[in-house]
């Protein structure tokens, strides 16, 4: 897989831009996504669920994630969470399903 430095609607942030981007994003992250006011405390891990072993790359991360601190995984596939828990002890879990509408209506209505 190749990492593209820019695309039609995005580009990678340069190292010099990272502090300003982090300051900007923190303004818009709701308090519920950072329960102890730590911006890196709430994360999502996206990888193909059939390749959950790739989570080991995250659990060996020593800069972005501090595995000695509380961590909140949001909207993360169960296979990924299970793999993550091999390296990180879970204290509390809330699980649920996420549904996506394949064919949304063209106009939003509030009628029942």
UniProtKB/TrEMBL annotation:
This is Uncharacterized protein.
């Amino acid at each position: 897989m190749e990492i593209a430095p820019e695309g039609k609607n995005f580009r990678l942030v340069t190292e010099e831009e990272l502090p300003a981007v982090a300051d900007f994003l923190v303004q818009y992250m709701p308090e519920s996504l950072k329960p102890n006011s730590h911006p890196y405390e709430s994360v999502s891990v996206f990888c193909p669920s059939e390749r959950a072993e790739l989570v080991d790359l995250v659990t060996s991360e020593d800069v972005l994630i501090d595995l000695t601190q509380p961590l909140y995984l949001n909207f993360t596939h169960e296979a990924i969470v299970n793999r993550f828990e091999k390296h990180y002890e879970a204290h509390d879990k809330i699980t649920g399903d996420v549904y996506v509408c394949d064919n949304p209506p063209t106009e939003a209505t509030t009628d029942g």
